[in-house]
Amino acid sequence: MSTIATPLPKPPLDWKLPYRGKVGMTCLIIAESAIFTIFVVAYLFYLGKSVTGPTPREVLETPIFYTICLLSSSLTIHFAGKLLEGGRRGGFLLLWLVTIALGALFLYGTGQEWHRLIYQHGLTISTNLFGTTYYSLVGLHAFHVTAGLIMLTIVLLFGLAGRVGSERSHRVEVLSLYWHFVDAVWVVVFTVVYVLGR
Amino acid sequence: MSSDAIAIQTAEAAGQPWVATLHEWVTTVDHKRLGVLYILYALVFLVIGGLEATVMRIQLMHPHNDFVSPQVFNRMFTMHGTTMIFFVAMPIMFGFANYLVPLMIGARDMAFPRLNAFSFWLTAFGGFLLYFSFLGGSGLYGAGNAPDVGWWAYAPLASRAFSPGHSSDYWTIALLASGFGSIATAINVIATIVSMRCPGMTLSRMPLLAWLNLVMSGMVLLAISPLSAAQIMLLVDRYLGGHFFDTQAGGSATLWMHFFWIFGHPEVYVLIIPCFAFASEIIPVFSRKPIFGYPVMVGATVCIAFVSMSVWAHHMFTIGMNSYANSFFTITTMAVGVPTGIKIFNWLGTMWGGNIQFKTPMLFCIGFLFQFLIAGLTGIMLASSPFDWQLGGSYFVVAHFHYVIVGGILFALFGAFYYWYPKITGRMLNERLGKLHFWLFVIGFHLTFDLMHIPGLLGMPRRIYTYEPGRGWDTLNYLVTIGAFIQGTAILVFVVNLVISYFKGAKAGNDPWDAWTLEWSISSPPPVYNYAALPTVASRRPLWDLKHPEDPDSRYE
């Protein structure tokens, strides 16, 4: 092609397109949002339609502490990314570890709440409509937290092996985008289940 | 450079034992090979789904026919619908997108090649799982059976009480698996188009095929995800004793309908938009004119995508919604007709005054234009809710959506096969067999689906396995079945053409149609790496610029 003399204008010198990882993750987030929307709609639609108890008002307690844990993990992962970009790997690993700890704490909180609901109040996924929609919605979110924690842990292991440097910070950024999404979904789930739903 | 590439490839192919070739195909992450795998896989299922349709048509040929039992008939229409939508139409669209998008935007591969392979095998697994239900539907001890709850699987029919055994679970998990495959491919297509375009390929210079596949992939993200969510809910109901769609515990059967059709209607556009893309590439080349109204074309497509997200409940007029919902969905549904009409006028504007060459790809595109228009008109009839109360659930609806899917989607697809087969295989499809295929298919199609409207108007409900004689449906159904056999013969001609031309077809060369998009600048079939040096483009028709350095398009941009 280059051998043919063409009157074509020169290609633009600053030809730069968005990073594919970020675009892919954004698309995944859009698709996931649609999935969560359906579950949230089902939850709202079935509010107060359970034929038998227990009802949300009777058994749900607002998990303020664990919510703070999860939301602040968004901050720690953000600053972890910034530190990695600046080449400070020690600080990055530390904040990354804190993020994982906060996420794990949140999962523990969910587990504790479920344990209480199941053993004290006898609420399972097949008890009534509230149980079905509650466990599916919160469970779907917890599943995403778990998936995120697994990925975060893999990065941590690579980091400890010295394989994650500033040259990979744009990849770490993609994962942190996912983690922010998981947090944002929790804001919605929290509002729907613990604020509006009672 | 290109002739070297061909020589290297054939040398490789000749010296290899077939196991090594097979291993290469199974482990491939090359977008072209995955594209071909998608297409071949879909063609196999097209034949299977076609045979299922034939079984139904033979059964309905005469009143009181007993070719198959009612149970088998239920399985046939369920499997036919599910197969054709999820395991023929979706994979074939993704196959073409996989093959063509990177070539047309001047990229070496998709953005995520391994994810691409993963998506294909996930989709393939879904198809095999669905068909395994014939063996394992009731567990291996009871004789197996396939899903028989219709391709909507309306609640409560799909619940444990009314669909015992595992047949509905095979249906659910097959759709869930292939759905995840589709979402992953859509992510891949979008990332490829956004991040992998060659230098100079701005969004406004991108071939319409790439644009339309971008829009289609965006719709997949928003349409397939609700289906996956609903399938998860159905699994919760069936396996964990949940009550999402269990009316006895306060659940709602209507909610399933909403969730299904939030997927179901945009899905129609997910399938038709790539066909618009084929038509937008083929019609200009065979009219020897650039596409008419490129920006309007893009705008209309985006508009269709938006509006089609809010029309789903027109599938539900007959369940009795309130009058506000009925009016809203009637209006939005009719509104889709506007951007669609714009597109049809644009294609006509492209042909107007052009030097039209009636080669087989163009014939199929003209058939597509004409039939899609009629399908749109019956669509507007059904969009009007009082009319739909009368005819919803009748053969009129069946005729309408087959007009869209066969008359629109399948015709454009055949056009795409005749147009890009030379690029994919390096050989031309036989033109005489192609024309035979076209005319047989046109005759069979119109005999079947034009006439099918009439029994619907006369009150024949869909999904019945037989009917009483003397209601005025007998002769029509007989003719409809004859039309189905003519279409089957046409498909046979097509398959024969595909096979014969692969071995005996005329050599295609790089650019058999004198076309203008980048894929025709490299050898047929393209080398593994696509482009030895990444191309640079300066207009919408880069090959025109190369062929006509004295008057390039880029001068007018």
What does this structure look like?
The complex is a heterodimer of chains A (about 200) and B (about 550). Chain A contains six helices and no strands. By secondary structure, chain A is mainly alpha-helical. Chain A has one domain (about 20-195): Four Helix Bundle (Hemerythrin (Met), subunit A) (Up-down Bundle), CATH 1.20.120. In chain A, helix 1 packs antiparallel against helix 5 and helix 1 (about 20-45) packs parallel to helix 6 (about 170-195). The radius of gyration of chain A is 22 Å and the shape is elongated. The model of chain B is unreliable at about 1-10 (pLDDT under 50). In chain B, about 70% of the residues lie in helices and about 0% in strands. Chain B has helices at about 1-15, 20-25, 30-60, 70-105, 115-135, 165-195, 210-240, 255-285, 295-310, 325-350, 360-385, 385-390, 395-425, 430-455, 475-505, 540-545. Chain B has a single domain (about 1-555), classed as Cytochrome C Oxidase, Chain A, CATH 1.20.210. Chain B is an all-alpha fold. The interface between A and B is large, with 41 and 52 residues.
